Amino acid sequence: xxxxxxxxxxxxxxxxxxxxxxxxxxxPEKALKHASAEDLHSLPKLATEKEWTKKIRPGxxxxxxxxxxxxxxxxxxxxxxxxxxxxxxxxQDTPIFLMATAGMRLLPKYQQTALTSEICSYLQQNTRFSxxxxxxxxxxxxxxxxxxxxxxxSNYLLGGFDHPDSHQHGKGHHTYGxxxxxxxxxxxxxxxxxxxxxxxxxxxxxxxxxxxDGSPAEYRVFTTTWLGFGVNQxxxxxxxxxxxxxxxxxxxxxxxxxxxxxxxxxxxGDLIGDATPAVSTLIGTGQFDECMQLAYxxxxxxxxxxxxxxxxxxxxxxxxxxxxxHFIGVSEYWHTTHGVFGGKGDEAYDFATYQQRxxxxxxxxxxxxxxxxxxxxxxxxxxxxxxxxxxxxLLNVLHExxxxxxxxxxxxxxxxxxxxxLEHAKDRGFVDAFxxxxxxxxxxxxxxxxKMVLYAAGQITPxxxxxxxxxxxxxxxxxxxxxxxxxGSTWRSFNHHGNNTSDDDGWDLDAEDILDxxxxxxxxGFFAFITILLLFLYIFRKxxxxxxxxSRVNAVLxxxxxxxxGGRKGSNPRGLSGLATKIFGGRPSGGAYERVMEExxxxxxxxxxxxxxxxxxxxxDSSDGSRGSSRRLGLSSGLATPQITDHxxxxxxxxxxxxxxxxxxxxxxxxxxxxxMLPPHLALSGAGRRSRAGSPTRMKSPLMxxxxxx
Length: 710
Hints:
By secondary structure, the chain is an alpha/beta fold. Among the domains are: about 1-140 and about 445-460 and about 485-510, 2-Layer Sandwich (Nucleotidyltransferase, domain 5); about 230-315 and about 350-400, Exopolyphosphatase. Domain 2 (Nucleotidyltransferase, domain 5), CATH 3.30.420; about 585-710, no CATH class. The protein contains 24 helices and 19 strands. The radius of gyration is 41 Å and the shape is elongated. The model is unreliable at about 410-430, about 495-520, about 560-575, about 580-585 and about 585-710 (pLDDT under 50).
């Protein structure tokens, strides 16, 4: 698919099964190059396809007692499916997440830990997907987190983030609420109006996103969950109330108004024939109004409310302003309203119409329902037998629990909704207080999409270096709160004007690391200068060391005049020599001396060979042996004088005329004036010459080693 695409894999581990989701989006650097003005102010554009999802049963919570089987026996099939979609060369850069929901939340903590640990180990050892942090990538997420991800997905697909002006619901509100119901839990997430947001600020979550141009986007969202209030858990609670209600009776047949008339099942929902004996049997009466009445107490509306206001089960929820809070319902909200009871092409939810359809269906004899479905379609039969209770539960939760106005009976005021929003949403029903949805613009509304949107937004570089706020969510507080949940992605620096022409994928760096490096860049040079200065002062703290270097510098700077006359063009030996004297503390002017070589004498000398020591081994790859090595060391350190040979100088030093030094370049600094005044025969014999072998400082300056490595 090319280097410009990024991929992500999420495994939604629910109570009834595990579903694979694969998402794709353009690399932020590449997307920025050709982005329009609208794109720059939008979140990354994610894509998925129907074939990129796959669900298997049962849920991973059933592996609580056999954790070693969850990888090869459950997850491997989903992994294989993902590998058919994602290009092989992108697998290693593709993050994989497994996030378990209500089914796993019901397990004991030790089983949760054992399962998540086994899953992470299996994925790390048997796949090449990116999984650097087990705690971040393999989680049992809270219901509040699941709800927040769903809120992100809904608003992302509806355009509430990217086009707020087109989604003004009134009172400056432009986002949609989110409702989700699974088998074991139900979630709600919404942004309260300004008054409620201020009143309940401590109850809100701070959400941080980032648009393609690097601009931050913050939202304050309330989210909560009701564990045990999913349709399957609610059904179990309902059956228990029937058992308690008829416990005193000897009759083993328990009338169930939430089952179609004549339907017989076990307490666990298994179909039972007329002649099949059972200890306790549920027999349907098809009385939907009575079903609604029996399901209502399960909402827990009589539970004490410790923090007003409360909705279901005594749980605090800020007051919902349905004038501006329009909710999208997914999962069971969609399946229950658009499954058995959905009309052809019927999109908008209407309470009066829906309730009548439910009553008509549930009042039928089971035999008539079976005949219309067909006995061989077991899955559809199961859906049909559960449909009446699910419908009664959904209606109770929506209207009695959450308080959604009964559309069709209780009209919602639309005076505060902008005309633009009405025109944009009128065909979809999004101006209503509640709308059940499965897909928006062909993309499934799933909380997993919200998680991946957050991850993709985290790959975008902040527009400002001062923006140190990461993408993610946490408590509604300034800065980065201690409970902040990071997006899990990293961003890399890029040119915000889209001038980066590299086609290669760069190395992702952590946002904090890059910002720290950016800030320290300006001080790096200063500290380097101070370090070099201190090293310089340490080395030359003694006079003999200063004099050694001075002698070498003086030998180069104080060149004799050519025999032909004037000095070298542009040279000023006295001035430079004086500067060197000031720096290195030279001898008094009266003691200075200069040996002038005869013409033609220069070819008898080579200057500045530096003895090789252990510290310098391996510092040269020259093929000239030790001589070439010492020459390179001298040149790189700046302390050795270029050698004079019969060859021309590769450094452009044309004149062979230099100060008089012996082969080691040490005569000036080691021999006294008395030594120079000796008769020729004594001078040549070396009389009066001090030995250098015992000198502790003989070319052992610590400055040589580090500078030679430069």
